[in-house]
Each structure stands twice: as structure tokens, then as C-alpha cells.
Input
Amino acid sequence: MTTNSPDFQRWTASLQAQFESRIGALLPAADIAPQRLHAAMRYAVLGGGKRVRPLLAFAAGEVTQADVGRVTIAGAAVEMIHAYSLVHDDLPCMDDDVLRRGKPTCHVEYDEATALLVGDALQSLAFQLLAEHCLADDPAAQLEMVKLLAVASGSRGMAGGQAIDLAATGQSLTLPELEFMHIHKTGAIIRAATLLGAHCGNALDPQELARLDHFAKCIGLAFQVVDDVLDIEASTALLGKTAGKDAQHNKPTYVSLLGVAESKKLAGELRADALASLEVFGPRAQRLRELADFIVLRKF
Ligand code: GRG
Output
């Protein structure tokens, strides 16, 4: 099965549609006070995005025969953290961008203060979801899931990676420094999505968990390597966000360090490493394999 196969396309399209409707129901309605904040939260989350992180959660849930309802909650929590990070990243004090998911960024459509609150409120709602829905039979296991997302999104994860990114603008980084930054900024949430999806189902033995974790780390980094290449090669229209910003902002990227050809080679190596770590799971990991291919071969 390849990423272009009708079967994979049907699987993603059907989950994306179900997910859209479910996450829409989990967000506060736009007519509930404070209406403007709730409308802006819905604007930031709904009607766009590839939903790669929830799809990874669903695919990892297939490995552990997880209940789809549970995975949907875990995927929604991760997607809310992701959406908050995009809203904050687009603010003038950070990346200062006007286009996201093919539409005006949240602070352009609303205002800066609202966009700041949208991020804050989405982050709180993500953890509320993990606290109020049953995601694991063992409450201690569920508490570990909450901690996993907290660490992945905090200063030792995404927020820390963003801090390193901001400090690195205009600086030159070594390859290990660039990798450290991206493992945190982008990789941590992708890893959390995958592990949370798996944790919604039957427990994996430590060796299996280590294999899945290795897959998630490889694919998280590959995602960023490809993102750097697309920033150079893809159009603003296709990406739905401003292309060419990394070079414009003099940001160290895989492309600036390695060039396009070497970056593509690295993405291919990470994909191979990711796929090799799934061998132990056999056919149960087929959707994860397809998603790895999608992440590395995507054009947007
Ligand atoms: C503000 C705390 C804080 C963190 C921001 C994730 C992030 C950290 C910033 C986003 C900036 C960026 C372009 C990162 C590169 C990789 C990335 C996360 C791209 C966007 O993810 P996609 O392609 O987006 O999955 P969609 O819109 O499809 O969900």
C-alpha cells in the first residue's frame, strides 16, 4: 500500500472528516460567552490542516487495538496543542506571519490579544480533555499520558524548542544543535501523538514501546527536514502558509546547512530507520508505515 493508494486516501479522508466533526463538538460553541474568544478558538482549530498528529495517534492505536473514541480524545488534545503553537508562532513577537492553513492568521483575523488567549485556552482545553475522559483502564497509566503531553509541550519539549529557534535566528548552528532544536520544537509533539494513540490501547512490552518511540522520533525529525525543503521548493498557495520564510528570516535549517539534495537524502534515511523499527509489529503497523511515507513524500 502506498500513500497514493485509494485505500490509504479513503482511510485518511474518513478519519479527517470524523475528527473534524468530533473536535468541533469538543470546542466551546461560538455562541457561548465569551463569544469572540470561542469563535477565534474554532477559527484556529477547524477547517484546515493535514491532521498529521491525530492520524499518527489513530495509526498507533491500530497497533495496540485501541478504542477509536479514546484515540479521538487523545488526538484532539494533541491537535489543540499544535493549533495553539501555530497561533502563537504566527504572532508579531514570534514569526510574524499573516497566512496559516490558507487563511489569515488568527491575530490578523481577530487581534493579537485574542490570539494570545486562543493559544492559552486551547492548551488548557487539551489537558481538560485528557483529565475528563477515560483513556486508559488504569488511572495511573492515564496520569502518565497527561504527563507525557505536558512534558512534550513544555520547556523540555515544544516550547523549549521554540525558545532555541528564536535565539538561533541569524546565528549559525551545527547539525547536532539543529537536530536538538527540531527534536524539541517539532518532534516532541509528533512523538507524543504517536505514543498517546498507542497508550489508549493494550500495553506494549518495553521493547515494543522502545521500537514505537524510535519510529516516532525518526518520523518527527523527518517531518521537519521535509518542512525545511518544502519551505524552499513549494509555493505559498500549496503550503497555505508563507513559503521562503526561513531564508528570509535568516534561520538555520537543514537546507541552509546541508543543501536540498542532502536534506532529501537525510529524510529518506530517517524514513528507512523509522520503517525498520516497525518490523516487530507486522501488519498492525501498516497505517504507521503509510503515514511515514506520507510525511516524507508529501508535497505540502
Ligand atoms: C509557540 C510554544 C510555541 C511553539 C511553536 C510548532 C511551532 C512551535 C511552530 C510552528 C512553526 C513551524 C512552521 C514549525 C515547523 C513544523 C511545523 C510544526 C509545521 C506545521 O505543521 P503541519 O505542517 O501543519 O502539520 P498543519 O497546518 O497541516 O497542521
In short: The mean pLDDT is 95.
